[in-house]
Each structure stands twice: as structure tokens, then as C-alpha cells.
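INTERNAL AUDIT FORM
Audit reference: QA-55
Scope: verify that the stored structure record matches its stored sequence.
Auditor: D.O.
Record contents follow.
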Amino acid sequence: MKKLALYLSLLAVIVLLFIASLRIGIIHLQTPLWDLIGKHDGIDATTVWDVRFPRVFGAALLGAALGVAGVIAQGIFRNPLAEPTLIGLTSGATLGSIAVIATGAAAFGSRTNVESAVLFAGLAALLVQLLAPNKGLGFLITGIAISAILTALAGVMISISAKPGVQSLSFWNFGSLAMLNNQTLKIIAPFIELGFISAFMVSRKLDIYSLGENSSHYMGVKPKQIRLWAIISLALLIGPAVSAVGAIAFLGLLVPHIVRLLVGPSHRRALSFSALIGAIILMLADLASRTLFQPHEIPLGLLTSLIGAPALIILLRLRSAQWVSHD
């Protein structure tokens, strides 16, 4: 009953944040928000539905995706420090996006751009899986190394690209919802939806997998199969997010820790709450990034790092028990 009340409360917070984000901004609305429903003419209607709506909906969708991805990453690597940015997925998706844009094969926000990001994110995770020793922190350390290599390759590609505007895309490193629009949302939403479905399908088996590979094998769960499904889920969640808004730091690392503190370690339950809390955090961060220092906008990734790092330290100090990785 308490968990249901918490779930409904988080949903209510998301609705309130959604409404507030549509109303608040550098342009002050002269028309009540309710009167703008169904209208697309005029400055107020254009501001709400073409500028603010894709940002706030995107923040909710991508925050949920990053929260869920964090749970899957920590579950599959059996390590509380595993996070899409640290294990190569974000860097792989960034490289995939930049590769098609810098070579002129696709434009930013196109379906090809998203597909390339998903593919490279999946390949990065598979590379970590193949190269990492199958013990303890081996996955995490290998992921950090692969991430560094892919980030360097992306940087080289940006530096040598002759395509106008590519070299100014600091967007990839710091993250921003400023370039998000309704058309991009229509393209990335189906990929993320598939990622959610895949994540929930694999979540129950992750509870068994967390006991260790030998134990999970004897209980009917095939470790290699579940890792492959988890990688597919992560690629479908992280690839579209990075292709649309760049790298958002700390969210995938912080959210699972908050959720486990609130509702326990069950992966299926953690996914639902991580989606809600991830959406709330990113919506709050986006609202702050575009309103605190108007008319300037703070890069979203910088803000999530400033919020996420201290919050993570506090949460870790408050935890009375450690999540122990099983070999």
C-alpha cells in the first residue's frame, strides 16, 4: 500500500512539473495554458507546443529511459557503480551519431542517426562483454577503458570533419534538450518504447542472475542469453537518448540508488520507480537549466553532474548495507 501511494505521488509530481514547465520560460504567456489546448496559431501557442512541449516531454521520456538503463546496467554487471556512461554505451552512441553526421551520411535527428547510435551503443557493450574478464570489477574497468577509446575517436572525428557546424557540437559532451523538437521525438520514441519492453522482460531474471552465474545457471537462467537481452535493452534506451540530447551524466548512476533505498532490490519494481524518478530529476534539471540564469542556458549534463555527484555521495553514506557483487 505504501509503495502504491509512493507511485501515485511520483506520478502527481510529474504532472505538476509538466504543467509548470509548459508555463515557465523566458517568454511570459499572455494566454492561460488551458485556452491554448488545440490551438497552434500565435506566439503563445507556438511557444508552448513547438518549443516547450517537446522539451518537457523529451525530458520525461529520456529521464525515464536513463533511469531504467541504470537499473539494467547495474543489474547485468552486478556492480552498483555500473552506469551507461562508465561502461561504454554512451560513448558508443555518441560515436555512432557523430560518424553519420560528420560524414554526411545522415542529418542530426534523422532515423539513420538514431539507428547508428543504437547500433554503436550495442556494439560497445558487446565489445566490453567480449574483452572483460568474467570476474568482479573486470566488466566495469574494461567498460571505462572502452569508453575512453570511443570518446577519443569521437573527438578526432569532430576535429577533422569538414562538415560545417560539427566542430561546435559541445552538445555531445554536456547534453542539452535545446535542439529537441516534435519530429525528433516521433523518431526516437518507438526505439525507447522497445527498450522499455525489453528491459521489463529481462528484469525478473535479473533477480536470479544477481545471485551469480553458477547459481543462475542451475536455476534455469542462461547468463549469456540474459546479458545479450540486457545489452539490446540498453542500446535501445541509450542510443536514441544520446543521439537526441547528447550525454547526460550521473542520472543512470544516481537513480537506481535512490530507488533501492525506497523500494528494495527487486529489479521489476525498481524499473517502474526508476522510470518515474528519472523523469522527475531530468524535468527538474531542464527547468532549472533554462530558467535560473535567463537568458543564458546551463548545459544539462553539467547541471545533472552538479546535482547528482553530491546526492550520490550522501545516499551512499546513508546506506547501512553494501550491495556485494557475486562472482
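Auditor finding: record pair retrieved intact. The chain has one domain: 2-318.
Action required: none
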